[in-house]
Automatic annotation (TrEMBL):
Chief place of localization: membrane
GO terms under cellular component: plasma membrane
TM ranges: 6-23, 44-66, 72-95, 116-140, 152-173, 180-197, 217-238, 259-283, 303-332, 359-378, 384-403, 410-431, 437-455
Gene3D superfamilies: Sodium/glucose cotransporter (1.20.1730.10)
Membrane-protein topology: Multi-pass membrane protein
Subcellular location per the Swiss-Prot or TrEMBL entry: Membrane
Any matching Pfam family: SSF
Protein name: Solute:Na+ symporter, SSS family protein
Source organism superkingdom: Bacteria
Length: 486
């Protein structure tokens, strides 16, 4: 294992070095939070693919392939579909807004009164997303070093917190680009063909497994529908995803670069399912489907290659973890803390804002690590995150982009009713049940439409300014935050 250890240690050291390099570039709020809005198509595509394809997509995707066969690709496939929909239909408009958070977009659209409550919901989502990624370090470091779970979470989490705090989005962008390359080589070019060959090829796999393993819909129609609701729609509105859209150099970069990243996700989804199916042939009686990835890597890959593929898994986890962490800190600082304090932005405060955002990344990073140590169930934490996001924020965000009659009161009612419905239904039916997101989303939509139609339309001046902003005809400075007492 010495060669494998060397590969991993070099990789982790490289992540920290890029964090230090990124610190030298992140001298303003724009540079720190959105990489100066300067990413070109190649880097934008790679980093976008890196953040959406995390530990759940890699380790979990292989596990679903082990359990269901080729139809196990649907979870990651719906993530790719969501990224494609975001890129083709919405990303150009989102990029032209020149904001930093989803809640700022809601403030612009509805007249400055929707930010704090939507910020709280988005913060809860990004926090839980970062926690689920951080928990995954335990699996990888256990395979590598037979390390204690708590120590593994602290080690992996600390590295991500360190480079994210140092250089912000520039560090995360650079590390994500490396992680994208490592994932492509490790999973698509090495693990996929080796797993299929070790399993005897597709003909042998078909001979040894039940026919439903090769049924595209074998996982079940209701499960696929739920994946679409949670992951496809979740991709449209998550702060972690939007913050990457904000890094694009132009609206065309956001559209076409995101389309390339979405297509890559579809390929990655199929690859994970095939690897999992091959693992089922090689190890038909594993105690847990989630151990399929680690088992096939540990037992079937040659020295050196094994280290690279484990680095690829680590890359997948780190890219999602760092993206969720900076999103969580950005929302906590800009959408919640600043508004509760009634902070007004002034010229010349950019450097102080970098310090403030850096401090929030550090604080949120410690909170994420502590929460990850306390929790065990990754799937439940991820489900809570996406149920809150989709049930609470999908309707007011898409409504704001698509329906001019939507009002601030309608948006606030939608967030409150949808969020509370999701929480109540999860308590009633269970966290993993489908009903919370189904009925939460319907109640959010009903509240948005009814309250919007029964209240005064959004002021014409606000809508006019919103249309100008969507068209990219206004400069970047944002309206002053509304103090908490107004």
């Amino acid at each position: 294992m010495a060669v494998d250890y060397t590969v991993i240690v070099v990789y982790l050291a490289g992540m920290l070095a890029m964090g230090w390099w990124g610190m030298r570039r992140a001298k303003s709020k724009s540079e720190f939070l959105v990489a100066g809005r300067r990413l070109g198509p190649a880097m934008y595509s790679g980093t976008m693919a890196a953040i959406v394809l995390g530990g759940a997509s890699t380790i979990g995707g292989v596990g679903l392939g082990y359990q269901y066969g080729l139809s196990g690709a649907w979870m990651v496939f719906t993530i790719g579909l969501g990224l494609l929909a975001l890129s083709v239909f919405f990303s150009a408009r989102i990029a032209r807004l020149k904001v930093y958070t989803v809640s700022e977009m809601l403030d612009l659209r509805y007249g400055g009164r929707a930010g704090v409550i939507s910020g709280v919901v988005m913060w809860a989502y990004t926090l839980m997303l970062a926690v689920t990624s951080t928990i995954a370090y335990a699996t990888i470091f256990d395979v590598l070093f037979d390390m204690n779970r708590t120590l593994a979470i602290i080690l992996g989490g600390s590295i991500v917190v360190a480079y994210s705090t140092l250089g912000g989005m520039w560090s995360i962008t650079l590390t994500d680009m490396v992680q994208f390359v490592v994932k492509t080589i490790g999973v698509l070019l090495l693990l996929l063909p080796i797993a299929v060959i070790k399993a005897g090829g597709f003909s042998e796999m078909k001979a040894k497994l039940p026919t439903e393993y090769f049924d595209p819909l074998g996982i079940g129609g209701e499960t696929i529908f739920t994946y679409v609701l949670i992951y496809t729609f979740g991709m449209l509105i998550g702060q972690d995803i939007w913050q990457r859209v904000f890094t694009a150099r132009s609206d065309k970069t956001a559209k076409w670069g995101g389309t390339v990243a979405g297509t890559y996700c579809l390929v990655y989804a199929l690859a994970g399912a095939v690897i999992g199916t091959a693992a089922k042939v090689l190890y038909p009686k594993l105690p847990s489907a989630d151990t399929a990835f680690a088992t096939i890597v540990k037992d079937e890959l040659p020295v050196g290659v094994r280290g690279l593929v484990l680095a690829a898994a680590l890359a997948a986890v780190m890219s999602t973890s760092s993206g969720a962490l900076i999103a969580c800190a950005t929302v906590a600082n800009n959408d919640i803390w600043a508004k509760l304090r009634g902070v007004v932005k002034r010229d010349g405060e950019e450097h102080d804002e970098v310090k403030g955002n850096r401090a929030f990344i550090l604080i949120m990073g410690v909170a994420v690590i502590c929460t990850a140590i306390a929790l065990n169930n990754v799937v439940e934490a991820l489900t809570v995150a996406y149920n809150l996001l989709v049930g609470g924020l999908l309707v007011p965000i898409l409504g704001g982009l698509l329906w001019k009659r939507g009002t601030a009161a309608g948006a606030l009612a939608s967030v409150a009713v949808g969020g509370l419905a999701v929480i109540g239904l999860m308590a009633t039916y269970g966290i993993l049940a489908n009903e919370p997101v189904y009925y939460g989303l319907l109640s959010s939509l009903a509240a948005y439409v009814v309250v919007s139609l029964s209240t005064k339309p959004t002021d014409a001046a606000v809508l006019a300014a919103w249309r100008e902003r969507l068209a990219g005809r206004t400069p970047e400075p944002l309206p002053e935050p509304v103090p908490a007492h107004q």
